[in-house]
Amino acid sequence: MVPPFIELTNLTKNFGNGKGIFDLSFGVQQGEVFGFLGPNGAGKSTTIRHLMGFVKPQSGSCQIMGKDCFSQAALIQQSVGYLAGEIAFIEDMSGISYLNFIADMKGIRDRSSIRDLLYRFELNPRGKIKKMSKGMKQKIGLVAAFMGDPSVLILDEPTSGLDPLMQNRFVELLLERKKKGSTVFMSSHIFEEVEKTCNRTAIIREGRLVDIVQMKELSKLRNRIYTVTLHDKESAQRLAAVEQLDIINVCGRKVQIRVKKELPNTLRVLANYQPTDLQTETQSLEELFLHYYGEGGHKNA
Ligand SMILES: Nc1ncnc2c1ncn2[C@@H]1O[C@H](COP(=O)(O)OP(=O)(O)OP(=O)(O)O)[C@@H](O)[C@H]1O
Question: Which InterPro entries does the entry mention (predicted)?
Fold first, then answer.
């Protein structure tokens, strides 16, 4: 069997008070786009800082391409495309001098990938970083991570602060890199970007690995909530009482319905009631976690 390209072995860092990461062991294969999902404070950034060799593990270890992330940190940091969760810039620099500085550090001579990325993210890097908006700083961080087409990318919440158009640009970029065979480890709060890009995802909670799931399996578990508006209250009451639907709530003319797989059937039923409006929302990632693992962090399904 091929050894994992990125490997964590019993990785542990105990900050006290139950905070930190505990006994994390899993591997990411070459060419895989791997998501790392978990609620706030779950330990995602701490894990990523270990992978980049910024912190010494208390026990256990992690490796990228067979290199120990801590003892060979310089090598890792030079070859991996990295985006930090909170990017520490030398704020007095202009965007372009910062990018040139990173390119020099990484030994990237051909600057064409920087130009392409700036164009893709519609970013003018001439101004000083300290005067840039959060989204612009995030784009600078992304250009720095993706420049020179690294074969491994480690990204901590890559679309934080980006508007939906730029989030889509990021997804397109990642899919292109996936096609070219890059290996990606990416933390995120946004289910959709993980769903569109990742092969598998690890779920972490309170510093512990809860599960590793194929993205397709996780998507199947996700509910959609439809809010249908009918002509009058009586029709709404009748719909809720008579039909075999998973009704969440009835309020006046509006009925909220949870739909898992049976969408065609639900739509057929609703058509009989001649709705005046139909709205849909997807279950949030947090709701999905609760549904899947329960309050105690144990798998229900
Ligand atoms: N250097 C530190 N000293 C003490 N506690 C820390 C330290 N770094 C992180 N923590 C704590 O460890 C836990 C995990 O933090 P971490 O930043 O890894 O979470 P995260 O999953 O990235 O969260 P978020 O989604 O909010 O960014 C948090 O409770 C945090 O307060």
Answer: AAA+_ATPase (IPR003593), ABC_transporter-like_ATP-bd (IPR003439), ABC_transporter-like_CS (IPR017871), P-loop_NTPase (IPR027417)
pLDDT in tens, 24-37: 999 999 999 999 98
Residue 254 structural domain: 223-282
Going from the Cα of 29 to the center of ligand 1, the distance in angstroms, rounded, reads 26
Q: Tell me which residue has its CA closest to atom 30 in ligand 1.
A: 41
Are 185 and 69 a contacting pair, CB within 8 Å? no
- What residues line ligand 1, using a CB cutoff of 6 Å? 15, 19-20, 38, 40-46, 85
CA dihedral defined by 78, 82, 86, 87, rounded to 10 degrees?
Answer: 50
- Within a domain: residue 278? yes
Q: Which of 15, 83, 159 to mutate to test the pocket of ligand 1 (most atoms within 8 A of CB)?
A: 15
* 254 shares its domain with 206: no
pLDDT digits (tens, 9 = 90+) for 104-140: 999 998 889 999 999 999 999 999 998 999 999 999 9
Are residue 209 and residue 245 in the same domain, yes or no?
no
The predicted model scores a pTM of 0.83
